[in-house]
Protein: P-loop containing nucleoside triphosphate hydrolase protein
Amino acid sequence: MDLVAAAPGEQQAEVPDILYVVQTCGPTGHVFDTRVSDKPMDKTPLNNPVRQNHPVIAIRTRISAVAPPGGPPGHWNNHPRPPGMPPTPRATNVASTSMVIHSPHLRAALAAVIDYSGGFETYKDTMVVAAPYQVLIHHWAALEHYRDNQPACHDAEYAATTAKHIDIVMSFLREKYGEKIEAETRRWNSPEGATATHSFFWLLLKPGEIIYKEEDETMAPYVISSVRRSTQSEVGFGAYVVNHWNIEYMNNRLQRHMYSTHVQPWAGERAITSLPVIPARFVPGGTKEVAEYRVKLGRQYWELAQQPSYREYQGMMKDKDGNDCGNMSGRVVIDCEGWALFGDSPNAAEGKITPAHPPRRNPGPPIVQKDNLPQKQPHCPCDACRGEGLPRAPSAFAGFEYVDPKKNQPPANEELYFHVFSDLVPAFLLGERRWAFLKTANLSEVRPDTNAFKYLVLEDEVKLTVKALIGKFASSDGKVSPWPSDFVKNKGEGRIFLLHGPPGVGKTCTAECIAELTRRPLLSLTSGDISTSMSAGSVEHALNYFLSLGERFGALVLLDEADVYLEARRTRDLRRNGLVSVFLRALEYYKGVLFLTTNRVDAFDSAFTSRIHVALHYKKLTDTDRGRIWVQNFERLERDSGGKCYVPPSTRLFALESPEMRRLAFNGREIRNALQTAVALAETEALEDGVETVTVGEKHLRSVAKMSSGFKDFLRRRRRVVNDEYEDEEEDEDEEEADEGSSSDSSEELADVQGGDDYASFDDEQ
Structure:
């Protein structure tokens, strides 16, 4: 039996199973007094000698102390006292209490049952566990199971000693916390609803288990990494600092992202579901149901992370800082890798690559360092077990870190892996030409309107040509099939369509209908998206940025009103020449499908002619064309409204046959705008009358026609005035030029006469 070293002249005493140690510290933390006992002690100084042999565990309490006034000089237990510290200090309060585990049998048992350490190191020669001994109580049941089911390689003596030491620890914990833990667990199972006290809330926060946090009206799962109490130097002294992680896409890999949440103290009992973090067993909606739903979202995230994906979205958006940035309803391209490359910084549109990170879901507490994720199941490190050399099974978290969804398979424990995926994916918003984070639950498959091209009002020959050429680009995998290359590699693999004609004849609509027909995204750009400074450098960066996205997404790129950048070069306009050169080079190396629209094709630089594969001319609309457009808009209105909107025959007849509508000669865009305005008038009237069906009557369309007619008459009058003023200015300029010319002629004649006289005089002198 182990003995404690005794003082000279004393008999040796047995080493107790539990040794209580009290250390007295000065203001600087220096330990100048150590007292030991086999029973709990108060803070009264004892003059016990320091024991040399080790018990199974030692309960070490450190108390802070200050010196009383005066006091004889000297030393305390032969330790030099700190400057100004008398030999008999006065205890003030307990600074900390911890358990020092000396028993190698107990240390090995803990190493065999702790599957997620949470920062607790199981392979040290001396383990120190701070009160209230969370890691021991979290593994209470596992230790008891291990005690009765030790490895077969343990001999009888080793197994008996291990069982005894486990019982010693369990007995200590049961005496210290047993009744309090039982009272806390009764609160969890209360029929009035599960509650918890702040003092023992840590019982529900075992590292490696799942907690939920309410975020954007949904329950987001995380894995607990570690739990500690905040210190005096931190905000909210006494709060629980819960470090946790989930799986997000960062730096071209799916990996863990660490977060930290403070759970502030509260008095008495509090409903567990009202706390900032909720253990999985108490999550509203049912543990199994919520877990299955989150696993489904995680699988969806995994699939989306493998390649750019074309989707529709309806819901709230987040920016890169985790802030709400509005609602949207429209089409997007989910592209995790693209976000990692381009991000959403001011430099993105200038082609500069910036590192991108997922949005912060928990602003406030700092981001914590990653812990060491266990890759193998825990095992006993004793000599007998190591000698067996048995292979260790992978842990529940094996393979969770740094996964490439394009190359790797999901980890073996994919249910847990997908369970803790983030529900925010990075996406490019096609309508707004910017990046944002979207919730996977609000994404849906794109439902293209493949009949849109059929209803496009174009000449049959033009429609046939477009459909034949673009059909080669319709594919289900979202990749553009290149046409025959140029002699130079990577040149001439794209297809460029020029759509030219007057406004409102269907140029932009053609590109939109082709996108629907091919089931591809449409990246629609204006000159403002490319650049507002009109410098060749900024235009080149922005153009390369958007064309690169077009290639990544397999999108059709539409550059509306392209004549701004494609005007003919001039000898003295170096800035204009630089813009044209930038566009020529970009078009040469673009590998996708690009649509250029313009109503000023005569101003194009001649160099663009060889870059354009198909040029389609759109003629002015005839009355027959307008009639077809009206009919199609009426049919679409009734179809898309689900029968809530009705267009009677009288309204149709007025739109198609009335002289006033024909006199207006609406183009396609004006027809659409006129119908939208008429519907708005009809909706207001239906709301006032309290009827559900919105009837777009002739009077609504007549009101719109009257407003449009008045506006067009105003424009015509205004243009006439402007033209008259312009002609007057030209006449004035001509008169001024004539006057200047006559004055110049007179001056020249006078100079000639004067010059002749001088010359004659000179001759006479000669």
Q: What stands out?
A: Residues 698-765 form the longest helix (68 residues).
